[in-house]
Amino acid sequence: MSSDRVVLVTGGNRGIGRAIAERFVAAGYKVAVTARSGEGPAGTLTVRADVTDAAAVDAAFTEVEQQLGPVEIVVANAGVTKDTLLLRMTEDDFDSVVATNLGGAFRVVKRAAKGLLRAKWGRVILISSVVGLYGSAGQINYASSKSALVGFARSLTRELGSRGITANVVAPGFIESDMTAVLPEDTQTEYKRNIPAGRFGGVDEVAGVVSWLASDDAAYISGAVIPVDGGLGMGH
């Protein structure tokens, strides 16, 4: 499946976001990525933006619109962690994570919404996490911000669902990345014991689900939470 639609992936310079951008490029989409530093993959337009800054988000969208055209598919992927137990978590540890992971999705989707309404077509895909609904000790800030994306997507679906616009959440589990690579061997083994699939996922497995949600095959799916977690979060 190929398309010349315009895609914007936030945080598309590394990890899952980069893999998503690469998948869209391979399928023939016009792809832009936001990054605070570094560059997106070959074939993408990289624009500088900190998603906690509405003016920066606006400027990034304007640049993409001028160079590629109106954004039709938004993948809100930019995220941060500041892990610590509740009793040690500072106001900033909480506020800064929520401002990026939830506030960033709000700013990006709000800026995109007028264009989606004008086109009477759109895909909003929010990248959450298995811990959003499963929970994770030391991640009250992160898990709160990621579970909030479910309410966001479902409210957006009720607002814009009749206009040819869908909003869905993808919830990756443990994915092979820089973060999992540095875990001690016994920790990795313990994590894998809890995952029915018995392994970590690959970034390409997340990217494949995101590209499918953007396709015409997924036109009647909205407000869904799609786990890509090897069965870890079942029932949550």
What are its keywords?
236 residues; alpha/beta; 7 strands; SDR; 3-oxoacyl-[acyl-carrier-protein] reductase (NADPH) activity; NAD(P)-bd_dom_sf; KR_dom
Short description:
The chain is an alpha/beta fold and 236 residues long.
Could you give me the name of the CATH homologous superfamily? NAD(P)-binding Rossmann-like Domain
In the sheet with the most strands, the strands line up as: 3-2-1-4-5-6-7
Contiguous runs where pLDDT drops below 50 for at least 5 residues: none
Number of helices: 9
What CATH calls the topology is Rossmann fold
Please tell me the total number of domains. 1
pLDDT averaged residue by residue: 96
Give the terminus-to-terminus CA distance: 32 Å
Q: How would you describe this structure to a colleague?
A:
It is globular and about 50 Å long. The chain starts with 5 loop residues before the first strand and ends in an 8-residue tail after the last strand. It is of the alpha/beta class and 236 residues long. It has nine helices and seven strands. It has a single domain (6-228), classed as NAD(P)-binding Rossmann-like Domain (Rossmann fold, 3-Layer(aba) Sandwich), CATH 3.40.50.720. Helix 1 packs across helix 9 and helix 3 (91-101) packs parallel to helix 6 (140-160). The protein has helices spanning 15-26, 54-67, 91-101, 103-119, 131-134, 140-160, 178-181, 185-194, 203-213; strands spanning 6-10, 30-35, 44-48, 73-76, 122-127, 165-172, 225-228. Strand 1 (6-10), helix 1 and strand 2 form a beta-alpha-beta unit. A seven-stranded parallel beta sheet has the order 3-2-1-4-5-6-7, sandwiched between helices. The model has no long low-confidence stretch (mean pLDDT 96).
